[in-house]
Write a structure and sequence with these properties.
Elements: H1 2-24, H2 30-53, E1 58-63, E2 70-71, E3 78-86, E4 97-104, E5 119-125, E6 129-135, E7 139-146, E8 151-156, E9 167-169, H3 180-191, E10 196-197, H4 203-213, E11 215-219, E12 230-231, H5 232-245, E13 249-252, E14 255-256, E15 268-269, E16 271-274, H6 276-280
Parallel strand pairs: 1-3, 9-10, 9-11
Antiparallel strand pairs: 1-2, 3-4, 4-5, 5-6, 6-7, 7-8, 11-16, 12-15, 13-14, 13-16
Helix pairs in contact: 1-2
Bound molecules: 2,5-anhydro-1,6-di-O-phosphono-D-mannitol and magnesium ion (MG).
Length: 284
């Protein structure tokens, strides 16, 4: 986790410099901004790779930004799976982005179910840099980066996701091409008392709000993404572990996300994650 924390510190620092550059270069249009986003995606991936290469602990990494897994230390004990910069289309708008990661055992375990994850979590780069870590049976913990010391300090020892809650996060513009069951589920969620729609375009940011306030995030299959958009190994499964450890739940169709055995490293799944009682009402 020290290696992951070091990558998160580097990404957080670079995001702040990146924002400054964009402001200075405000006359540049799509090209400049597009290149900048790509550079930050690449930067974040390199920051994770370089940090994880230290100390010879990590055998293999799987990244959203790399077509195939990379081999690091020959005798390393761990596989790290990550989305180095989730929601990067938010960057040009100055909105929140995150990193998502999971730790598994050596090589073979990378293609096991989410239950093989030893630790999973995410960083949220917003007004503060937050870090959430969960491991099986040990709950989920929230840290915040203290910029004056560079240390992560504990904010919550044991996060609990409310069993139900008001937040509904989904790209409702795609609802017309969802299944009737998905549309009906969202309709029920939206008509629950006090429900409110909150969708940021960054899974980490939407998930974090739901972790604290309760509710549901969904990205089901649609016309453009038959299997859903989110990747099992470094988006859905890590957040499923955090959700379960905080008392929530995650489904892909009628299966628990944590039970799905992947067939490929970049496999996508239709994700429904959030409060236990809300996700229980998902028909699958
Ligand atoms: P990314 O990993 O390429 O950033 O894609 C994942 C992101 C999620 O963070 C977010 O919830 C979703 O894609 C938004 O997709 P859309 O713009 O289709 O609503
Ligand atoms: Mg992502």
């Amino acid at each position: 986790m020290e290696l992951v924390a070091s990558a998160v510190r580097r990404v957080a620092a670079e995001l702040r410099v990146g924002a400054l550059h964009r402001m200075l270069g405000a006359t540049g249009k799509t090209n400049v901004q597009g290149e900048r986003v790509q550079r930050l995606d690449r930067y974040a991936n390199a920051a994770f790779l370089e940090s994880l290469a230290e100390g010879g602990l990590v055998a293999q990494v799987v990244s959203e930004e790399m077509d195939v897994p990379a081999q690091l230390a020959a005798h390393g004990q761990w596989t790290l799976l990550f989305d180095p910069l989730d929601g990067s289309s938010n960057l040009d708008s100055g909105a929140a982005v995150g990193s998502i990661f999971a730790v598994r055992g050596p090589q073979a375990a990378a293609l096991g179910p989410g239950r093989d994850q030893r630790i999973a979590g995410y960083a949220l780069y917003g007004p503060a840099t937050l870090l959430v870590l969960a491991s099986p049976g040990e709950g989920a913990r929230l840290f915040a980066l203290d910029p004056s010391t560079g240390e992560f300090v504990v904010v919550h020892e044991r996060l609990r996701m409310p069993a139900t809650g008001p937040v509904v996060a989904a790209n409702a513009a795609h609802a017309a091409t969802w299944s009737a069951a998905d549309r009906a589920f969202m309709g029920r969620a939206l008509s629950a008392p006090a429900s409110t729609l909150r969708y940021s375009g960054a899974l980490v940011a939407d998930f974090h709000r739901i972790l604290l306030e309760g509710g549901v995030y969904m990205y089901p299959g649609d016309d453009a993404h038959a299997e859903g958009k989110l990747r099992l190994l470094y988006e859905a499964a890590p957040l499923a572990l955090v959700a379960e450890e905080a008392g929530g739940a995650a489904k892909a169709g009628d299966q628990a996300v944590m039970a799905i055995v992947p067939t490929s490293v970049h496999q996508r799944v239709p994700l429904v994650v959030g409060s236990r009682d809300v996700v229980a009402g998902y028909p699958g």
